[in-house]
């Protein structure tokens, strides 16, 4: 009816996987065990009963295909990624494969793999025409390089980054895996804030020019509010929200932070700051107190930074190249290197990675705002496309289990529910494990809770089980402008979303009832799927967002880690051994085409919404990304006016203005204020929708 907005330290200890008999059908309480994961196993595959149809809001249990009952308890490895030195036979097979490699996959032995990281790191695999670094390809490059006898070491040139902390945790994990091979790993950076340094600290050596700007001074999060500005122009937001912590809408309604908003932002800031300090200290071999003391000094002189042990050396890039020549044995006039674009084309199977097994684990990557329909462009999750993928996987008997990778702040509620149901249907036939990236909140969490188990990074932002809905009342603005609008309608609720008048008492009551219904449905499904009572779920819902670390302690997440951890759980749930070879199939479609490159396509999506203030705020106060904040705010102002102008016209033209209004967020992911409240404009009637929206917090 209304365009409702429903808001929506990697684990170091072992994770217990308790195997129970097939006769046990009582859902386990996730709240009581943050890291103890129950995986249903069949006593006898031949005599296993078909899973019963789930209740209206229950997530079906996943039947595990296992030969025999297995041990009572299986222990996952403490380290998610563990480097194992290849055997003599493996090395021989690798050499034979390299000899027969295609010409464009060959390069000189003793080369340095050079990776340039800056801007966004895409969650989705990218097409061959794309220059964007993707997370799966980057991680594969580091795993391949560890086993590739042609690669002497890795050099990572780090530029200002525009991605979340969870992705950085995943990349760090793979850097540490590469370093376990004994090869050298260097980081080179000219400008660095907390995120850039966090990545660099995982490398064995950190280099920077003497004039570099390395600003590691702490973190902050900020909120801005439009109430005063909207009042001056005669715009009245009429927002209804369910949930104490539901802060989407605060930017329109308030002039300062609410206490619940302050509480949850402080908790997120604490978790990210503490995790940063702990990880950097461990990488540098320093105490956490030493790292905090260095940050509090506000050091800017690079000689002092080096003296404190936070960089290895001060060299210019040309000097770094000379160092590399000595490391790699390169000639005086030639440095043997291979870049990301070429190396990503080397097949992982060359080194026995993700290959050799009879069974496969499919990794389905979804990222962006959730929308209905199919064929979405840019960073979107289109329900029809995901459903098509899941149904194809369901029919494929070679696929034993599925990892559903989610990086989404939410979106269309109907689309979220359709995918939720399809995930349930798939889970009746094979295990489905959710792997959360930077954000899996609201509609993103809605998808995850349908899975058998949920894995998140400690700094993933998740939860946001809440509702916000409303519209703009532009009546006063119309009067000030001398703008008249006359509407003919038939039906009691025909003008429910009209921007030319405020809600009547009956309309407000209907809106409130609709929002409460949507919230209770979301909350109750979450309770059933997580094996929690409605009362317990209510305590952790109410629109609150959580870090992955805290979510694991309250039952919203099962385990901490990345994609590799999710694959381990998927193998166990499918009755496979942890050391059993399986093929890992990336089934996501690449989204960059030659036409998009020519037209600058891809575009901004509705993920750039008001709620992203909370979900993807900047938590690195002194970083270079803050310099983009003023630019982003200035760029967002005319876009906001463009969207509001379209809204005043009451036409579908508003739909065209909305993505533009959110473009600032798409281009500058670290801006505190994400352009405009595009979803709120959508709710105002700019682009009428028959479906509610699960929006970010």
Describe this structure in words.
Pfam families: Peptidase_S49. There is one protein chain. The relative contact order is 0.17. This protein has 697 residues and is of the alpha/beta class. It is built from 25 helices and 26 strands. Among the domains are: 10-45 and 57-80 and 355-463 and 548-586, 2-enoyl-CoA Hydratase, Chain A, domain 1 (Alpha-Beta Complex); 107-217 and 318-349, 2-enoyl-CoA Hydratase, Chain A, domain 1 (Alpha-Beta Complex), CATH 3.90.226.10. The strands form 7 sheets. Strands 14, 17, 19, 20, 21, 23, 24 and 25 form an 8-stranded mixed β-sheet that branches. It has a 6-stranded parallel β-sheet with strand order 12-9-7-6-5-13, sandwiched between helices.
List keywords for this structure.
single chain; alpha/beta; 2-enoyl-CoA Hydratase, Chain A, domain 1; six-stranded parallel β-sheet; 25 helices
| CATH homology superfamily name of the domain at 10-45 and 57-80 and 355-463 and 548-586 | 2-enoyl-CoA Hydratase, Chain A, domain 1
Instruction: Give the terminus-to-terminus CA distance.
Output: 21 Å
* Whole-number mean pLDDT: 77
Please identify the top-level CATH class of the domain at 10-45 and 57-80 and 355-463 and 548-586. Alpha Beta
Number of strands: 26
**Biggest beta sheet summary:** 8 strands, mixed
Oligomeric description of these chains: single chain
Beta-strand content bin: 15-25%
Count of alpha/pi helices: 25
Radius of gyration, CA atoms, in whole angstroms: 26 Å
**Which structural category fits the helices and strands?**
alpha/beta
Pfam family, one: Peptidase_S49
Organism: Chlorella vulgaris (Green alga)
Domain Peptidase S49: 179-320, 426-576
GO molecular function: serine-type peptidase activity
């Amino acid at each position: 009816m209304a365009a409702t907005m429903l808001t929506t330290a990697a684990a170091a200890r072992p994770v217990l996987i308790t195997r129970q008999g097939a006769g046990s059908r009582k859902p386990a309480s996730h709240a009581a065990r943050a890291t103890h994961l129950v995986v249903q196993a069949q006593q006898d595959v031949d005599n296993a009963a078909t899973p019963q149809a789930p209740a209206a809001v229950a997530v079906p249990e996943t039947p595990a295909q296992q030969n025999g009952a297995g041990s009572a308890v299986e222990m996952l490895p403490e380290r998610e990624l563990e480097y194992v030195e290849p055997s003599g036979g493996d090395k021989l097979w690798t050499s034979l494969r390299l000899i027969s490699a295609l010409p464009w996959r060959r390069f000189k032995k003793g080369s340095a793999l050079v990776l340039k990281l800056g801007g966004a790191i895409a969650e989705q695999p990218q097409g061959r025409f794309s220059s964007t670094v993707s997370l799966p390809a980057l991680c594969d490059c580091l795993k391949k390089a560890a086993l590739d006898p042609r690669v002497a070491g890795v050099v990572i040139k780090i530029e200002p980054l525009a991605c979340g902390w969870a992705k950085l945790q995943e990349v760090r994990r793979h850097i540490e895996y590469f370093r376990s091979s004994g090869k050298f790993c260097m980081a080179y950076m000219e400008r660095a804030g907390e995120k850039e340094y966090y990545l660099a600290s995982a490398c064995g050596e950190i280099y920077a020019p003497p004039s570099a700007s390395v600003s590691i001074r702490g973190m902050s999060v900020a909120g801005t509010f439009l109430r005063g500005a909207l009042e001056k122009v005669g715009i009245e937001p009429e927002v209804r929200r369910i949930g104490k912590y539901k802060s989407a809408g605060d930017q329109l309604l308030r002039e300062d932070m609410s206490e619940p908003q302050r509480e949850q932002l402080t908790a997120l800031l604490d978790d990210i700051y503490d995790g940063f300090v702990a990880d950097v200290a461990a990488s540098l071999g320093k105490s956490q107190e030493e790292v905090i003391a260095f940050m509090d000094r506000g050091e800017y002189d690079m000689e002092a930074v080096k003296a404190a042990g936070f960089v290895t050396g001060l060299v210019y890039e040309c000097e770094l190249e000379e160092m590399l020549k000595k490391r790699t044995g390169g000639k005086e006039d030639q440095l043997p290197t291979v870049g990301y674009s070429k190396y990503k084309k080397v097949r992982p199977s060359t080194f026995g990675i993700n290959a050799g097994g009879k069974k496969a684990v499919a990794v389905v990557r979804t990222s962006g705002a959730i929308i209905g329909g199919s064929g979405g462009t840019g960073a979107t999750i289109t329900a029809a496309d995901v459903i098509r993928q899941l149904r194809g996987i369901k029919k494929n008997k070679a696929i034993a289990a599925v990892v559903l990778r989610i990086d989404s702040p939410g979106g269309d509620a109907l689309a979220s529910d359709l995918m939720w149901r399809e995930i349930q249907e798939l889970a009746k036939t094979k295990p489905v494990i959710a792997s959360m990236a930077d954000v899996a909140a609201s509609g993103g969490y809605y998808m995850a809770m349908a899975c058998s188990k949920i894995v998140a990074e400690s700094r993933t932002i998740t939860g946001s089980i809440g509702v916000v809905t409303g519209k703009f009342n532009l009546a006063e603005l119309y009067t000030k402008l001398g703008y008249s609008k006359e509407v003919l309608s038939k039906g009691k609720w025909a003008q429910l979303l009209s921007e030319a008048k405020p809600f009547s008492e009956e309309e407000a009551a209907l809106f409130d009832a609709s929002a409460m219904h949507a919230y209770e449905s979301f909350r109750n499904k979450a309770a059933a799927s997580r094996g929690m009572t409605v009362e317990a779920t209510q305590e952790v819902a109410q629109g609150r967002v959580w870090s992955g670390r805290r979510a694991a302690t309250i039952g919203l997440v099962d385990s901490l880690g990345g994609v590799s951890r999710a694959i381990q759980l998927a193998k166990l749930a499918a009755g496979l051994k942890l050391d059993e070879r399986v093929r890992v199939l990336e089934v996501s479609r690449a989204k960059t085409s030659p036409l998009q490159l020519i037209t600058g396509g891809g575009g901004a999506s509705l993920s750039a919404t008001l709620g992203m203030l909370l979900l993807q705020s900047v938590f690195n106060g002194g970083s270079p990304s803050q310099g983009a904040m003023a630019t982003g705010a200035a760029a967002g102002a005319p876009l906001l006016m463009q969207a509001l102008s379209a809204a005043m016209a009451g036409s579908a033209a508003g739909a065209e203005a909305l993505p533009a209004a959110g473009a600032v967020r798409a281009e500058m992911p670290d801006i505190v204020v994400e352009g405009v409240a595009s979803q709120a404009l959508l709710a105002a009637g700019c682009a009428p929708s028959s479906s509610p929206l699960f929006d970010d917090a």
